[in-house]
Amino acid sequence: MNNIRVKRTRAPQQRQIERTNQILDCMEALLKEKEINDINLVEISDLTGIALPSIYYHFPNKNSILIALTERVHENWRQNIRSQISPNIESWQELICQFISIGANHLRENSYVPKLILNNNSPMETREVDSNQCAALAIAIMDSLDHYFEGINKARYTEKMIIAVYILDGIWKNAFFQYGSLPDEIVKESQRALISYLRSYFPEDFEPKKNLEA
Asked: pLDDT class for 39, splitting at 50, 70, 90?
């Protein structure tokens, strides 16, 4: 009997999650084809089959959808860091290079992301979310470093990693301003820039952890 009650109380929550994801998926698909200013909630309602009042129940306006989508972009990037870093990593410098390559590939595979956070006409709200998420991204990198190496002092190094992520953010935003894309040479330069900055605070080598499970 208790199990039946649990299912009944969870069902509406599950529907809300599904509808939220459906709206975000629709916005993502539209951003791959259109500019932000050319998208409206009526179109999302038509494409998803979700009544307009229901969309307003989940998101009060278009920018709130864009903000939630930006948060999902960052969560996916953090998940990629956890899942795609090579288990045979040998140095913190190599991990930083892999982290940047993963991020660059994430941007290239998701052409809508620059419209959210990297273009000059990206909404101020999504830029603010992107900036705030830099700290969470830095913490994910520090967690990976701590997973692979001995002697990672998070209290000492996390602040420096946050600054490093802001440096990366600035380099990439400038690249999109100049080129409208992220050239391979900019990716390599950003790898060199972050490693050079972090070398001011990190030792050249951390001892790899032994008997490590990826």
From this structure: very high
DSSP output for 9-47: HHHHHHHHHHHHHHHHHHHHHHHTTS-GGG--HHHHHHH
Mean predicted confidence (pLDDT) in 62-78: 92
Distance CA(156)–CA(159), nearest Å, equals 7
Burial of 73 (0-12, 13-18, 19+ CB in 10 A): buried
Instruction: Write down all domains in the chain, each with its CATH number in brackets.
Output: 10-60 (1.10.10), 62-213 (1.10.357)
Estimate the crossing angle of helix 62-84 against helix 124-148, to 10 degrees.
20
pLDDT band for position 24 (cuts 50, 70, 90): very high
Nearest to 70 by CA among 7, 26, 133: 133
Tell me the β-bridge partners of 208.
149
